[in-house]
Design brief:
The chain is globular and about 65 Å long. The protein has an eight-stranded mixed beta sheet. A four-stranded mixed beta sheet has the order 20-21-22-24, with helices on one face. A three-stranded antiparallel beta sheet has the order 13-10-14, with no helix packed on it. Among the domains are: 271 residues, no CATH class; 34 residues, no CATH class. The protein has 478 residues and is α+β, with helices and mostly antiparallel strands. α4 crosses α5, α6 packs across α7 and α8 packs parallel to α10. Helices cover 29% and strands 27% of the residues.
Length: 478
Amino acid sequence: MLRHMWLASVLAVGTMWSTPVNAADEPVGLYAGAYAQDITPPRFPITVNGNMADHLALAAHDPLHARCLVLTNGDTQLALVTCDSCMIPREIMDSAKRRAAYRTGIPAANILISATHAHSCPTVAGVFQSDPDPEYVEFLSDRIVDGITQAWKQREPAQLGWATAMEPGQLFNRRWHLKDGVLGENPFGQKMDRVRMNPGYQNPDTDRQAGSVDPQISILSVQSRDGRPIAVWANYSLHYVGGVPGDFVSADYFGEFAVRLTRRLQAGNVQPPFVATMTNGTSADVNNVNFSQPAPGKREPYEQLGVVAETIAERVADACQTIEYSADVPLAVQETEIELGVRRPSEDELQAAQERLEGKSSPLKGAPDIYARESVLLAAYPPTVKVKIQALRLGDLAIVSSPCETFTETGLSIKQGTPFPHSFTISLANGYNGYLPTPEQHEWGGYETWRARSSYLAVDAEPLIRRTQLELLRALRK
């Protein structure tokens, strides 16, 4: 009896993971499939990260998804996946890629997986005082594989095009220069910061913003050959918006954008279901708060993220009407791995952190204690870490990946240096390696530079990543 059950199980798995159809066997031209795989936690309560302290969510306000898009053209197969998650470690993504490659035949190197960076999603990466939920980690990886597989199965003759739109009104650089003679203190007791993140409304100690914003929305649109919408992948350089009560999980404005855009494109009833996606651009130093003005009136929960989602959805929907589509689209992928230094604490810094934590128990309160714990944890890191960088070509449009929370000036530099008519960066892709300040931003200090698991790469990491991204773009253009 048990043997028969085992055999039936093996046959079922063999059917589910049947030998994939090679993209080269398809007729010439672009094929596409898209699927929004539900990744809402199957059980509550569940830990949520994105803040200095851990907290538990008791329910879901709105569903979380891994939104998947598969493109093939007979020569190349590739997949884009965007997950409603704060950050996802490389190990989880690599595992999902390997298994999805086995199921579909899409090379693992041709799959780009990213997180939106919503701060109201289950913990899958250990940062500050939140540790991953092991069951949800396994669940997430499995569902990503399922989503890619379903998108691959739904491939059909398709056409794609791209456009850009502008929306400057939702973006404000959150890092501010302090006035001459004013220095901020970091969690290690050093009074040396010349920049402060989120300084408060009209703070008299601030002088000017310490960075730029990128108001451009990049838009990739995919349709069936007869014009039925299949998917829209958008990219905007805005951090999460927030306003989500702590006892709920939510996809933030990223998820609400998908709902609003689907409505605006009147795509709610198409089959297979239309998939709208907002990816995280280069938003590490940008949020939705204008600190140069007086404090606004109180917003209701979810209200502001709805305002942002509606505004961006309107811009994207209008831009979609201008797109010229083509079924003859070259696809290509370049991927490489580079090694970057890690800012570990010195022996003296480690000893000071250990002494500070003596006799203290979790949860810790106050930045000095929390960062002391981060120092102890970082001391166990290797001296270098390998990160994965990708570049994808979709006709005259190119996409590059960054495994970090990337600053706007880096993204603008990529857009200026690309050999393609247009390129954009998807951040928090193919891994999670913390903030990526430029060397100058490191010199100025501030939260995004403070050494922790949320910001641990060497000071020269940003130039190395940016140079690699541009090299991959140039290789794709040959």
